[in-house]
Design brief:
The chain is built from eight helices and eight strands. It is an alpha/beta fold. It has a domain of 156 residues: Decaprenyl diphosphate synthase-like (Undecaprenyl pyrophosphate synthetase, 3-Layer(aba) Sandwich). Bound molecules: 3-methylbut-3-enyl trihydrogen diphosphate (2 copies) and magnesium ion (MG).
């Protein structure tokens, strides 16, 4: 897949610059709703789980591209708090796939200086998956490259409920609560708000992802299904992002 200039493979940073991407203005935090695995499989007459397996391959490559580009934060929606509504075989297949992926990829992630994080309700997950995630987080704790946050059994509303519970439990008086208080009680308080949210497979909705944090992020929706999301798609999303005018309620800077 990599094109060659002379004898040397072009890096993704070189590809980005050729597309007119300003490497000094990359989004600090990219969040991805990896949707369309099921449709990708169905179109090929395959079972949905095969679509999820291809989706894992796509994620593996996107993570390495993001790391190489130098984007500091990547957060991906792997399983929502609402995805338990799916057929049991799909849910258990997904849990096994995510667990295996977490174990199999740990070495590669560690070698690439990736720091793994988790958001979601951990106690609802199978023990094996919990162990795999905790091991990933622990092993990569000291890494200084991209912070890769996995949202599993994650719901934006559930996160806000959990934040409110922990604020109340901490005994903060109501008048002392502001937006900063809520932010500090989210699952990963150090995670900056996403700048760019990518959704594959065309649906124009948030599906309960990072509800609090995405108040001002730029949304980019592509019709491409997640298993087909490539390096070029990633660069296209970043390129589009760099042409957006972010105003945060104000007027654009001169
Ligand atoms: C996204 O793909 C992956 C998960 C939700 C786990 P889908 O499985 O939602 O794919 P579609 O939307 O049915 O095509
Ligand atoms: C969002 O996709 C969840 C993940 C990508 C993990 P869904 O496929 O679950 O979203 P809806 O049901 O179309 O809103
Ligand atoms: Mg879907």
């Amino acid at each position: 897949m990599s094109q060659r200039v002379g004898t040397k493979a072009r890096t993704i940073r070189e590809d980005a610059e050729r597309l007119g991407i300003d490497l000094d203005r990359l989004p600090r935090h990219i969040a991805i709703i990896m949707d369309g695995n099921g449709r990708w499989a169905q179109r090929r007459g395959l079972g949905r789980l095969l679509g999820h397996r291809e989706g894992y391959r796509a994620l593996r490559s996107v993570l390495l591209h993001v790391a190489e580009l130098g984007v500091p934060y990547l957060t991906v929606y792997a399983f929502s708090a609402e995805n338990w509504r799916r057929p049991t075989e799909e849910v258990s297949g997904l849990m096994k796939l995510i667990e295996r992926a977490a174990r199999d990829e740990l070495d590669v992630m560690h070698r690439n200086n990736v720091r793994v994080r988790f958001i979601g309700r951990m106690d609802g997950l199978p023990h094996g998956l919990r162990d795999a995630i905790l091991q990933g987080v622990e092993t990569t704790r000291g890494n200084t490259g991209v912070t890769f946050t996995l949202a599993i059994n994650y719901g934006g509303r559930a996160e806000i409920v959990d934040a409110v519970r922990s604020i109340v439990a901490s005994g903060v008086p109501p008048e002392a609560i502001d937006e900063e208080t809520i932010r500090r009680h989210l699952y990963q308080p150090d995670l900056p708000d996403p700048d760019l949210m990518i959704r594959t497979a065309g649906e124009m909705r948030w599906s309960n992802f990072l509800i609090w944090q995405s108040a001002y992020c730029e949304l980019y929706v592509t019709d491409v299904a997640w298993p087909d999301f490539s390096k070029d798609e990633l660069l296209e999303a970043i390129h589009t992002f760099q042409h957006r005018v972010r105003k945060f309620g104000g007027v654009p800077e001169a």
